Amino acid sequence: MPHAQTQPVEALPHPNPSNESRASFDPEGEGLNGQETTHFRQPIRIPTRQFLGTNTELLGKALYIASRIVCERLQRQGKDRNPQPMTILVTGAAGFIGMAVADRLLSEGRAVFGIDNMNDYYPVSLKRDRIAALHDRHGGLFTFAELDFADMDALQTALHDHPVDAIVHLGAQAGVRYSLINPHAYVRSNLAGHVNMLEVARERRVRHLVYASSSSVYGGNDTLPFRVEDRADHPVSLYAATKRADELMSETYAHLFRIPMTGLRFFTVYGPWGRPDMAMWIFTSKILSGQPIPVFNHGRMQRDFTYIDDIVSGVIGCLDHAPEDDGAPKAGGSRSPHRLYNIGNNRPEELMHLISVLEEACGRKAEIDFQPMQPGDVPATFADISAIAQDIGFAPTTGIELGVPRFVDWYRAYHGGAAGA
Q1: 42 confidence band (pLDDT: 50, 70, 90)
Q2: CA angle 256, 260, 262 (to 5 degrees)
Q3: pTM score > 0.85 for this model?
Q4: Of 35, 162, 283, 418, which sits most exposed with the smallest number of CB within 10 A?
Q5: Catalytic residue annotation
Q6: What angle do CA 401, 406, 410 make, to 5 degrees?
């Protein structure tokens, strides 16, 4: 078969091609669909209409990809006369993990557009303090909009003038037990909201979408440690079911539209700026104020407590290493550009041991109120992190003996040194 004729092309505006398929390209120079390209100082060569025939849609896609290559090389080489920094969209930016991820990205000099609906699932004052801290530390590099990403019109309006390079989707309605009380909040945020973010990723052709899943998807799985290859189709809470649904919807979009995506199953994250509805905060508050702490399943619980700094390193490590669209199986089993990782400490701790570490950090004994297992809860979590360790080098370094005192110190400082809150 004769070689396709090629001709030099200049950078072109995006023709907004159909998203029904996505041709592969490598801006480092491996070429378009296997065709050789050269460094930016030389012409980029792509198949001409003679090779493509009369398929104008395919030609448009080819020109779109070529323009992407040119733009990315211009950005890397600093030759764009009117540079416009690409922005990372972080949802749930006023949340615990969202704030920490945004802070790290901003510290690295990356522009962040944060969104959050600032709901009152826990005190909004804490969320506003997180956003204020990001503004104080990073100034104009951080942009924030208070909006609900389940509202597609509001989302598109807010993003209209902001180029988005990648998305870290951490916003969600959190909480296992609250899903028994207010299920519709989970349907709106975790299902409809997640589809909206998938659509933003599809329309914007982002280089990578990293999204929050949860260790809760393992449900009644009693084989430890939890592996991403394990079945996750027996959730024991609506929250877990919505997170598993997010994974399945993401797999569909990765398959149909070839969007690179990574889902992260978080394991019991704690640390400074943490959440008031989680055990670390509740226990600390009650120990310092001399109140009894509720301990479920009579203390026979294990959790893979993971410190926030380790989590952030894993999230950004994943963000910067998007899965390849090469047909090879990924972590979690997909052959599309979609992978699933456990992200935890790989070290389950007995709940009673955690309490003893907290007692030492707080400087007082806990009064314990033993209670039965709660609906929707599980007795143990334990993350097998071999996949994320192998792929991006994730290696958590912070045990609870180090992380818990850091949290208690922050908690005291945040509350002005008061005994409790």
Answers
A1: very low
A2: 115
A3: no
A4: 418
A5: 239
A6: 155
